[in-house]
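2024-03-11 09:14:02 INFO worker-7 job=invfold-0412 stage=load source=structure_tokens
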């Protein structure tokens, strides 16, 4: 599995911790920045989302101060289901039931230990399908209707 990861200037330290964690686990990832320069979170959201919609990466991680701006921006992109999470239950169920393909978190919201746990849950939980597939299909239909 290959992961796309990106952040804005408010979450560089959290991204470093997550990349070190992925390295330890041998998970392959592509870092889309930023690694220092201040930037606008929608640009990073677009870069990470693009890796997923192109099929280059399976799942993504987007980090900013709150995780909220990243999720708002990423969810504007067709095919993206980004979930802003700060607890284990929501992180597990957004994979099981929503087939979320990007996990968003806020460095100013959660601690490093919890963030790493959420990453592990997100990457190791699969979509349940079944009745949830119908509902995810309806999200896709909404995208079509609105475009
Ligand atoms: C940047 O200061 C901050 O607004 C951004 O990281 C994020 O929290 C937006 O949702």
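2024-03-11 09:14:09 INFO worker-7 stage=emit residues=147
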């Amino acid at each position: 599995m290959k992961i796309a990861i990106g952040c804005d200037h408010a979450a560089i330290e959290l991204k470093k911790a997550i990349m070190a964690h992925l390295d330890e686990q041998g998970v392959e990832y592509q870092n889309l920045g930023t690694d220092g320069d201040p930037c606008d979170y929608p640009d990073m959201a677009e870069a990470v989302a693009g890796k997923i919609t192109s099929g280059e990466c399976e799942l993504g991680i987007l980090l900013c101060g709150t995780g909220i701006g990243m999720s708002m921006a990423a969810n504007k992109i067709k095919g993206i289901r980004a979930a802003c999470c700060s607890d284990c239950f929501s992180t597990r169920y957004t994979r099981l039931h929503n087939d979320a393909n990007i996990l968003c978190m806020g460095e100013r919201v959660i601690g490093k230990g919890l963030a790493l746990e959420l990453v592990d849950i997100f990457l190791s939980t699969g979509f349940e399908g079944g009745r949830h597939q119908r509902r995810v299909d309806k999200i896709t239909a909404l995208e079509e209707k609105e475009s």
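2024-03-11 09:14:09 INFO worker-7 stage=report msg="The domain at 2-146 is CATH 3.40.1400.10 (Ribose 5-phosphate Isomerase B; Chain: A,)."
2024-03-11 09:14:10 INFO worker-7 job finished
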